[in-house]
Amino acid sequence: MTTTVAQHTPDATTANVTPDTPKELTNLLGLSRTQMEAFFLSIGEKKFRAAQVMKWIHQEGVDDFETMTNLSKALREKLARVAEIRGPGVVYEGTSSDGTRKWVLEVEDGSYVETVLIPAENGKRRTLCVSSQVGCSLDCSFCSTGKQGFQRNLTAAEIIGQVWVAQRSVGPRRDTANRPVTNVVMMGMGEPLLNFDNVVPAMKLMLDDNGYGLSKRRVTLSTSGVVPMLDKLGDEIDVSLAISLHAATDELRNELVPINRKYNIRALLDACHRYLAKAPENRQVTIEYTLIKDVNDQQEHAEQLAELLRELACKINLIPFNPFPNSGYEKPSRNQVMRFQQWLYDLGYNATVRMTRGDDIDAACGQLVGRVKDRTKRSARYIQSVQLDAD
Length: 391
Ligand code: SAH
Ligand code: SF4
Prior knowledge:
It is found in: Cytoplasm. The protein contains 13 helices and 14 strands. The chain has helices spanning 10-14, 33-42, 49-59, 73-82, 144-147, 156-170, 196-207, 227-236, 250-256, 265-278, 299-308, 334-346, 377-386; strands spanning 26-27, 83-84, 89-95, 101-106, 112-119, 126-129, 133-135, 150-153, 183-186, 219-223, 240-244, 285-291, 314-320, 352-353.
């Protein structure tokens, strides 16, 4: 992967800059450790500054060089001339009755993305659901993000910026025992493997001890199955993997998850085996299975699923379909979800059910389109037609 920091010579930071010369400031927020080190070398400073500045940004939530008291005044002033720490703007912040928190963030071009923090009922986990793109190009038939089409990739700064904003607003990470965000799942808007070059540096920051210091078991990438990029992921980083399977036959999956026509179930499961072989500490993948009434929630589907997954080290997470207007699909009854879970249990799988949280602030993870507003006509029409923009 290429390092994308702007190059500054020591001279360029001081001389040759008149007040009306437009300066391009390097946003330090999205730089991984290697990129941050390259940046400091490029401005004639020592590499170890990277760790110091990363701690200020990601652990203390600082966005002002002046606050970085372990740097000399001269260095702080130099940084202010060539760099910035710019996160997304918060346009809405809400907490639901069950403690789920949601932020609507404005990114560079005026698009909005959403991030939700979901506390576990036992209080032990606080999982942040992070977006990787504005919209999505993959058009899964049951997904509201897919329906609005693809607008653009988020930058690494905009991706890690979601964690940064959440942590800043819950409180800085002063000690590891009491982290504001304990887990991150890339399950918001977008397909993370189609924004690989920005998602990977952002995930590296989540794992970095000078960043968010999360263990690889607590950082999960969810994909609908972009097989070649899955292989590339395993070469670059070791994080937990969730696969959006949703169907156990190619015939049905082609309909629900159209990328299956390019990379079918066999190819996807083979890629999962290769990923696990590269990342021995993550001994299993999570299989996500959205249960849709009368589409994939019958006993035969449970049997096909059990048979298909026989040889894969995995756990199954059942997600009751989260309805949205004009989707053409329905949510199965609670009883049907429990029946499906029991069928799997009888076939040897202890599947979990992901309950929707934060309903009253429209914050279901994987369903983060509620108030997304963007500038494209297609999306505007879609949002208008389903009136999702209403509070
Ligand atoms: N693009 C990635 C990650 C974002 S979607 C992926 O598809 O894996 C996160 C999860 O939410 C996926 O498993 C997705 O299939 C699921 N999802 C999308 N729309 C949903 C809906 N309406 N109801 C329930 N789950 C949904
Ligand atoms: Fe994109 Fe994932 Fe939605 Fe499919 S489910 S359209 S891959 S965000």
